[in-house]
């Protein structure tokens, strides 16, 4: 069995962003040489997320609206965590959207269902953060 590890780095210009990283993960898979196995993609920061969904801008705006209703950024004083920080909402949003995804690898390709894409969700941006891609298989 082979393993392959690579980090992807992101520095978003906004506090919150959704970035389609499917092509970057596919490139890492190609580098790995793995034809059958699994691909783990996980955010290495507690205010960022990795998730799978449709690449549809209206849906992404819906995520933003929904998350803001569940864990509004302001007022900062509503959160116990915000003692010297202002990112408690980002921690909560990450918990809702998830830390990682695992995708099957079949014939050297990510084995997706219809419309599935991998996204990086940033909830406390404007600084450098990393995503781990770990591929295991033959």
Q: Care to describe what's here?
A:
- The relative contact order is 0.39.
- The N and C termini lie close together (5 Å).
- The strands form 2 sheets. The protein has a 5-stranded antiparallel sheet with strand order 1-8-3-5-6, covered by helices on one side.
- It has helices spanning 22-32, 57-70, 88-97, and strands at residues 2-10, 17-20, 37-43, 48-53, 100-106, 109-110, 117-122, 129-137.
- It has 3 helices and 8 strands.
- The chain has a single domain (2-55, 93-137), classed as Jelly Rolls, CATH 2.60.120.460.
CATH architecture: Sandwich
Q: What's the name of the CATH homologous superfamily? A: YjbQ-like
User: Could you tell me the strand content as a percent range?
Assistant: 35-45%
Coarse structural class: alpha+beta
Number of helices: 3
Give helix % range: 25-40%
- Averaged pLDDT: 97
CATH class, named: Mainly Beta
Which residue ranges are poorly predicted, with pLDDT under 50 across at least 5 consecutive positions? none
């Amino acid at each position: 069995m082979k393993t392959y590890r690579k980090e992807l780095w992101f520095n978003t210009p906004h506090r919150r962003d959704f970035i389609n990283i499917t092509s970057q993960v596919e490139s890492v898979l190609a580098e790995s040489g793995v034809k059958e196995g699994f691909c783990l993609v996980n955010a290495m920061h507690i205010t960022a997320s990795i998730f799978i969904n449709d690449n549809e801008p209206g849906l992404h705006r819906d995520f933003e609206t929904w998350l803001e209703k569940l864990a509004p950024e302001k007022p900062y004083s509503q959160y116990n965590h915000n003692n010297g920080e202002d990112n408690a909402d980002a921690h909560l949003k990450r918990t809702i959207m998830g830390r990682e995804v695992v995708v099957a690898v079949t014939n050297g390709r990510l084995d997706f269902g219809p419309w599935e894409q991998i996204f990086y969700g940033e909830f406390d941006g404007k600084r450098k953060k990393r995503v781990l891609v770990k591929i295991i298989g033959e």
